[in-house]
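Residues determine shape. Take a concrete instance:
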Amino acid sequence: MADFEIVTREDFSDVTYLLEIRHPLMARAARPGQFVIAMLHEHGERIPLTIADFDRDKGTITLVIQAVGKTTREMQQVCQVGTKLYGLVGPMGLPSEIGHAKKAICVGGGLGVAPIYPQARALKESGAYVIGIVGFRSKELVFWEEKFKAVCDEFIICTDDGSAGIKGLVTDGIKLALTRHADIDEAIAIGPPVMMKAAAEATRERKIKTMVSLNPVMVDGTGMCGGCRVTIGDQVKFACVDGPDFDGHKVDFDDLMSRLRRYKDVEKAAVERWSETCRMPDVREVSRAK
């Protein structure tokens, strides 16, 4: 078994945390837009996670995870510096196409803020003028502000309560950018499906190429299970091998959101069973106690 050691752990909120994992081969191979499939232990669930950053010099990849299901909550408790993941496969999926845009907007909402960073960095390195737009509920949840400013020519923070940046959703940030710039030729949006749908609608009238990263239910990551099928225009695609990036103006977001809701009851039951048997202290309570 390979050594997938966690070398850095950082908590951004009660439910959002960062893991930097040593994997030199994967760090060298990784490209913006790709993902990994991780297993916490031998009998663990296989979960797809978008690569939020990679450092070829250090030989590490970075994942930013939200503790919303059984496995991600278990990882939040177990994964500390010095511990190891049982399995880590990747990079998977097709890399994002970078290098054609002269002026682009990179939009991240919620957990999508982290994986939009490699896109913004790659666009900047290709010579594009980059406008970063990220959304959070409040100032307390903002992370990576300086990292984004280092690769963005303009950076717009949107918060639901107005405690940081402008008050509003990422679509308000998109509208602001479109007002300021008539020559934006590409947009990339990553986040919850409802956010990506809204972002695609915000750019549709101007016919700006808009790519989104889809997150359907995924098991094997090789196209065999069929769980990650999505409807793009009049075609059925598999997000794991045909994506995860797709033309946002062609994605059937209603179908995607319907499929994501299909397993809610099963996911809820899994969390409840795990919570009943778990005897480990809640990492959030431990953190607050410190």
The first strand starts at residue 4 and ends at 11. Residues 96-212 form a domain with the Rossmann fold fold (CATH 3.40.50.80). Residues 284 and 290 are 10 Å apart (CA to CA).
